[in-house]
Amino acid sequence: MHIEKEITKTSPGFIIVAETFADIPAREALLDRAMGPKRRKKSSEKLRRGRRPSEGLALIARNADGSVLGTVRLWDVRLGEGGPDALLLGPLAVDPTMKSGGIGSALMRHAIAEAGRLGHGAVLLVGDAPYYARFGFSAEKTGALAMPGPYERDRFLGLELVHGALDGAKGVLKAAGRKLRTERTRIAA
User: Fold this and answer.
1) What global pTM score does this model have?
2) Is the torsion defined by CA of 15, 114, 133, 96 positive or negative?
3) What CA dihedral angle connects 94, 100, 105 and 106, to 10 degrees?
4) Which of 79, 87, 100, 130 has a beta carbon 3.0–4.6 Å from 169's, enabling a disulfide?
């Protein structure tokens, strides 16, 4: 039996908790509503495919009746061939009917704090620079880095959780971290 641990009370209307296996269908439906059918074609998806989120960094916002209102996940990546490790944030999504309620901001703040608490040095993402600037993200240190596939360079942003973590970082991001276990692997195990 999995016991869901409340991580943070963020407002009277929702809490942020660790994502559970039971949340997957609701999370996927929310992502489809919020991001549409092209969400699986994004460059970031190439780094997530076949991988599990970084340990402790798959979070959801849940209301009092248990419905999933928002989600954010962070993924282990390597900065270029043989480069240092970092995290790739995404997707961040909020139920379209709940936009502007502070859920996305609360998820971001909590994800960044947890990543720092767990000892990660930097977080990267592809997103709207004016929105993510309020959390400290900028394109200042991502110029020598690249995503594996098409992306808009001005939307490739980074945040150092440890001063200097992105200094000298260069090359194409590579998937790292835990791989998903396939059904075939589970049966063989």
Assistant:
1) 0.86
2) negative
3) -80
4) 79
Of 159, 146, 23, the residue nearest 87 (C-alpha): 159
- Structural domain count of the chain: 1
List the domain range (segments joined by +) for residue 143. 6-188
- Tokens for 150, please give them: 């098409």
pLDDT along the chain (189 residues), means of 10: 39 87 92 79 82 96 94 96 93 88 95 98 96 97 93 95 95 92 48
Please indicate, yes or no, if residue 11 is contained in any of the structural domains: yes
Question: Which CATH number goes with the domain that contains 142?
Answer: 3.40.630.30
Q: What per-residue confidence (pLDDT) applies to 94? A: 92
- Domain contains 69: yes
Whether 161 maps to a domain, the answer reads yes
